[in-house]
Design goal:
Chain A: One of its GO terms (molecular function) is tRNA N(6)-L-threonylcarbamoyladenine synthase activity. Chain A: It catalyses: L-threonylcarbamoyladenylate + adenosine(37) in tRNA = N(6)-L-threonylcarbamoyladenosine(37) in tRNA + AMP + H(+). Chain A: Its EC number is 2.3.1.234. Chain A: This is N(6)-L-threonylcarbamoyladenine synthase. The structure holds two protein chains of two kinds. In chain A, strands 1, 2, 3, 4, 5 and 6 form a six-stranded mixed β-sheet that branches. By secondary structure, chain A is of the alpha/beta class. In chain A, helix 9 links the parallel strand 12 and strand 13. Chain A has two domains: 155 residues, 2-Layer Sandwich (Nucleotidyltransferase, domain 5), CATH 3.30.420; 166 residues, ATPase, nucleotide binding domain (Nucleotidyltransferase, domain 5), CATH 3.30.420.40. The longest helix of chain A is centred in the first third of the chain and has 29 residues. By secondary structure, chain B is of the alpha+beta class. In chain B, a hairpin with a 4-residue loop joins strand 1 and strand 2. The longest helix of chain B is centred in the first third of the chain and has 24 residues. Chain B has seven helices and ten strands. Helix content of chain B is 50%, strand content 19%. Chain B folds into two domains: 84 residues, Phosphorylase Kinase, domain 1 (2-Layer Sandwich); 129 residues, Orthogonal Bundle (Transferase(Phosphotransferase), domain 1), CATH 1.10.510.10. In chain B, strands 1-2-3-5-4 form a five-stranded antiparallel β-sheet, with helices on both faces. A three-stranded antiparallel β-sheet of chain B has the order 6-8-9. The N and C termini of chain B lie far apart (50 Å). The chains are: A alpha/beta, B alpha+beta. The interface between A and B is large, with 46 and 37 residues. The complex binds adenosine-5'-diphosphate (ADP) and magnesium ion. Adenosine-5'-diphosphate binds next to strand 3, strand 5 and strand 6 of chain B.
């Protein structure tokens, strides 16, 4: 523990020094020129590379590693998938943007959180191209990427953020230079709960288990009661998952309900929990805006429910579609763009990755 | 009888003033036999399935009343319940006069900047003591935030304010240390995210809790385990 501590303290110190000497130069320089940032994302089963120039998405290609029904994605297989396609995706990103490496100002990559092996793979490529092209590197927090992309696309000003994906479930609000976590799951993420349910009843992973659950849920009608676990602004999904894992096959084989009914009931239950903790955080913070980000956030039923809640309390809902909700490269480019303009860069020797990286660890220097 | 009761809510709400839309209810102010009264209405949440909504709303109204009574019996300050309408899910409560949420109180102390460390410490100690008593009674609050604690102001100068716990909708009865640990964990996260740079203050709150509760050691142990649970699975 001690060497790790020392190391991160040392790196913060060095980063600060580095950012100060280029900061004043950059401020002058940027007042005229545009800033182009390329972002590399691969923390889970998506590999994406996006290019952003001053708030405009120039390109954002992506590939998804899809496993057979009943199977989740393993870190090493996912990393192998990313390695196989990353250079093709990079080529696409540059071609679609109509840019040459020389036009890029900064190379941003996901530092974490996420799965180790895929993170390392993508960081390695980002590091390599940064050195080849002679451009500065920037490690970005994946969650901050989602938030900044959502803010860019929707123009939400200071929203309460619901961040829902396969690996994360958090209710976040900004105050005093940090994205603070007001509520979160105390066990598994909502996307993880949905994915694992899909595996139990062998729903296809193509294009994603969540998408297929959403389509099946539209055909469900019978509401099956499931455990509901809200604890203040926190939620718990492990009880629902173990209940449904245990009961699903029995209920299906006895004809008590259909697979569609189960999808419907699961969505109604877990989304109600998410809307409820978002509302609790809004009441507590006095907020009147909600932004939904993360892969589960493109679910239209979740957006619809959140919209009704917002209407009932005179608030406004902001959401994006699958291009920007689901992990993508542009979100890393956008957070990178904000950070780079605020004077951050990551030195080569500090360009490691980390599987655990909390949203509230990052000092947000680019907002008031 | 139930029909008579269900008429109570419309009658009292007709001349009540909406003062707050809380985390799940609308809170109105009105009068009852000349006394100021709060009406807490759990209105239907149209975003969720009617069956789920009815189940949650009913359960929470019942739990809120039950836990308030249990706390008051144990000497914990909570508003008096005048009556309940289980049809319209309204609870009629004593209004805690000229009160401020602990959230607003801490924020104003922190903003005023002047050295009011003592006042903050008093608040932390009071919360720690009250929660210790509550947990020793096996009441799990379920929604511990600084918005759900009120401070009566306007007492004589120099007098420390009296603290009232409200909003027992997510409460339940349990003797399990892990339930109490999660209760504290929920408070810790809400506290630290709402009030930046109060880690030391929260430590003090926990110390007071530990010193005031008879069964605290198992609870604190569970509290330390919850974040590990979150980290390892997330
Ligand atoms: N008995 C009361 N006296 C004075 N103010 C109250 C009382 N009950 C509630 N309030 C006010 O209304 C707000 C919301 O009430 P609360 O019971 O917490 O409802 P919710 O479950 O919707 O959060 C509280 O934060 C407080 O400001
Ligand atoms: Mg409340």
């Amino acid at each position: 523990v001690v060497p790790l501590c020392l190391r991160s303290m040392g790196c913060r110190h060095k980063n600060d020094e580095h950012s100060w000497d280029v900061l004043s130069f950059r401020r002058l320089f940027f007042s005229a020129a545009m800033t182009v940032v390329i972002g590399f994302e691969g923390s889970a089963n998506k590999i994406g590379i996006g290019i952003i120039r001053d708030g405009v998405v120039l390109s954002n290609p992506r590939r998804t590693y899809i496993t057979p029904p009943g199977q989740g994605f393993m870190p090493s297989d996912t990393a192998r998938h990313h390695r196989a396609v990353i250079l093709t995706v990079l080529k696409e990103a540059l071609e679609q943007a109509g840019l040459k490496p020389a036009d890029i100002d900064c190379v941003a990559y996901t530092k974490g959180p996420g799965m180790g092996a895929p993170l390392v793979t993508v960081a390695l490529v980002a590091r390599t191209v940064a050195q080849l092209w002679g451009k500065p590197l920037l490690g970005v927090n994946h969650c901050i990427g989602h938030i900044e992309m959502g803010r860019l696309i929707t123009n939400a000003n200071n929203p309460t953020v619901l961040y829902v994906s396969g690996g994360n479930t958090q209710v976040i609000a900004y105050s005093e230079r940090r994205y603070r976590i007001f509520g979160e799951t105390i066990d598994i993420a909502v996307g993880n709960c949905l994915d694992r349910f899909a595996r139990v009843i062998k729903i296809s992973n193509d294009p994603s288990p969540g998408y297929n659950i959403e389509q099946m849920a539209k055909k469900g009608s019978q509401y099956v009661e499931l455990p509901y676990a809200v604890k203040g602004m926190d939620v718990s999904f492990s009880g629902i998952l173990s209940y449904i894992e245990e009961a699903a096959h029995k209920m299906l084989s006895s004809g008590q309900c259909t697979a569609e009914d189960l999808c419907f009931s699961l969505q109604e239950t877990v989304f109600s929990m998410l809307v409820e903790i978002t509302e609790r955080a809004m009441a507590h913070c006095g907020s009147h805006e909600v932004l939904i980000v993360g892969g589960v956030g493109c679910n239209l039923r979740l957006q619809e429910m959140m919209g009704v809640m917002c209407k009932e309390r005179g608030a406004k809902l902001f959401a994006t579609d699958e291009r920007f909700c689901i992990d993508n490269g542009a979100m890393i480019a956008q957070a990178g763009w904000e950070m780079f303009r605020a004077g951050h860069v990551t030195d080569l020797e500090d360009s490691w990755i980390t599987q655990r990286y909390r949203t509230d660890e990052v000092e947000v220097t680019w907002r008031d | 009888m139930t029909q008579e009761k269900s008429l109570a809510a419309p009658h009292f709400l007709s001349n009540a003033v909406l003062i707050k839309q809380g985390a799940e209810a609308r809170v109105y102010r009105t009068e009852f036999l000349g006394k100021p009264m709060i009406v807490k209405e759990r209105f239907p949440k149209r975003y969720r399935h009617p069956a789920l909504d009815e189940k949650l709303t009913h359960r929470r109204t019942v739990q809120e009343v039950r836990s308030i009574l249990r706390c008051r019996k144990a000497g914990i300050c909570a508003p008096v319940v005048y009556f309940v309408d289980y049809i319209s899910h309204c609870i009629f409560l004593e209004e805690i006069m000229s009160s401020l949420t602990v959230r607003d109180h801490i924020a104003s102390i922190q903003q005023s900047g002047s050295c009011k460390e003592q006042e903050l410490e008093y608040i932390a100690d009071r919360v720690g003591q009250i929660l210790a008593t509550m947990h020793d009674e096996d009441v799990i609050h379920g929604d511990l935030t600084t918005s759900n604690m009120l401070l009566r102001c306007g007492l004589e100068d120099g007098d420390m304010e009296d603290m009232v716990i409200i909003d027992f909708g997510l409460s339940y009865i349990s003797a399990l240390p892990e339930d109490k640990g999660v209760d504290l964990y929920v408070l810790e996260k809400a506290f630290l995210s709402t009030h930046p740079n109060t880690e030391a203050l929260f430590e003090r709150l926990l110390k007071t809790y530990a010193a005031s509760s008879k069964k605290s050691s198992a609870v604190i142990k569970k509290l330390d385990e919850v974040p590990q649970l979150t980290l390892s699975r997330n």
